[in-house]
Amino acid sequence: MRLPAPALAPAWHAANVLARSGSVASSEVRLDDADSALDLQTLSFLVGAAALWGTYPTCVKLLYSAGPPLDPSIVVLLRFIIMAAVSCSALFATTPRFTLLRRYVTAAEAASMAWSEQLERRVPASVYVAALELGILGGLGTFLQTLSLSQIPALTAAVLYSTVNVITPALAALAGANAQEREVSARTWAGCALGLIASCWALVPDVGLLPQSLPASVGGGEGTMLAASFCYAASKVRLSSHLRHHPPDDIAVGRLVGQAGCAAAFLCLVDKTQAVHELLPEQAGGLAEPADAVLAELVTWANGFTPQQLGLLLASSLLSGAGATWFQSNGQRKASAPKAQLWFAMTPVFGAVWAYLILGEALTYHECTGAALVVGAIVLSIPPPRDRSQAAAAAAAADAEAEPAGGAPRERL
Questions:
Q1: Within 10 Å of residue 312's Cβ, how many Cβ atoms?
Q2: For the segment 241-275, what is each residue's pLDDT rounded down to a tens digit?
Q3: Which of 4-13, 137-146, 342-351 has the lowest mean pLDDT?
Q4: Partners of 30 in the β-ladder
């Protein structure tokens, strides 16, 4: 059997989660107004996600130096499987069985909602369908990103990926699930645009004003990378919509399982290890080899990983994968996608910091000034105290109008 050398390609947006216990949300969650400020806990979640995503480049560099070269697509699948296994295990270990049963019953009851109503609110009633949608978007984004990296320089791909800073608010304004999600303030637009400039600037090497590997035209590889950025932006916008109706932990775990399933299906179609070809019967053009023989070859291939590579693969899956997705899901539960993207733009900054602390790489002038620009973008997006007080007063009035006669108002993000 032809087996590729196992490997990992940069995938900035590997999303995923350590699930924790919690009850099923029974009412719709309201997003903050476009001009309101985020609370400290939400900011901690968003910054935590960016910091964990920033560990990925360092893990990749350590992984490449810890053993033989690795094939990107195979290790992306392994990484997704690890994240799905860890998140599911954490869910079952930390959630009482009765709560799990209640979640299943509640999800089954919600799924009976009329399709017309689900289409009207633009969010499926079933948490499983919602998680599958996010898993498909994340898995497709990772596949397109990996394919693009095989066709264009890494720096070109990184610059093109940074367009997610403006694609996210654009998608939110066009395809948000309701009018509130489609409302993107001028401050947020300006901050996202400045975040795009800051991300590109931080990637420029100090030897010149502009990197030489920027594309002169948009070809197949560049278009593929832009499509990956679109998928990542769409997953953030849809995540905010789903979290208004579904618990963040359930969404995060299901999203990981969906990504692993999509990656497995893609690899079966590509069949890089030739395992499918060897298992197929001869009438279908296969080799009809016994399953135990093919499995033994796969085990032999897996034994080619060094202990350091296995440890780094696990660390990458937990930090920039499961851990980052848990922070993202809980942060976006109280922040719209455009607001969250401003804080996610700090990911390259954290990547440079981790490389400096762990790999001993020097911080460049462009990285330092790019970090300052990212902070400036965040400050630009924060409304002044007067605007915040007016937004809070308007929100209180809206809650008073929405409050039912004998109950509490809906939870606000």
A1: 23
A2: 988 888 888 888 888 888 887 777 766 655 555 66
A3: 4-13
A4: 412
Query: What residue has token string 């608010």?
Result: 169
For residue 22, what pLDDT is reported?
Answer: 37
In 3D space, the residue among 130, 350, 399 whose CA is nearest the CA of residue 257 turns out to be 130
Long-range contacts from 205-209, C-beta under 8 angstroms, 24+ separation: 205/364, 205/366, 206/364, 206/365, 206/366
Which DSSP helix (H) or strand (E) runs through 336? none
Q: What is the rounded end-to-end Cα distance, in angstroms, of the chain?
A: 53
Q: How far is CA 189 from the centre of its chain?
A: 21
Nearest CA among 376, 367, 335, 329 for reference residue 348: 367
Q: What distance in Å separates the CA atoms of residue 276 and residue 59, rounded to the nearest whole number? A: 31
The predicted structure's pLDDT at residue 11: 35
Q: How far is CA 304 from CA 67, 297, 307, in A?
A: 9, 11, 9
Residues 6+ apart with CB under 8 A from 369: 201, 202
What is the pTM for the complete model shown? Answer: 0.73
Rounded to the nearest 10 degrees, the angle between the axes of helix 337-344 and helix 40-53 is 50
Residue in the block written with tokens 């929405």? 402
The tens digit of pLDDT for each residue in 67-99 reads: 777 777 777 778 888 888 888 888 777 777 666
Token pair for residue 22?
């919690």
Question: What tokens were used for 335?
Answer: 């922040």
How far from the centroid of its chain's Cα atoms is residue 114's Cα?
Answer: 30
Which of 89, 86, 72, 57 is CA-nearest to residue 4? 72
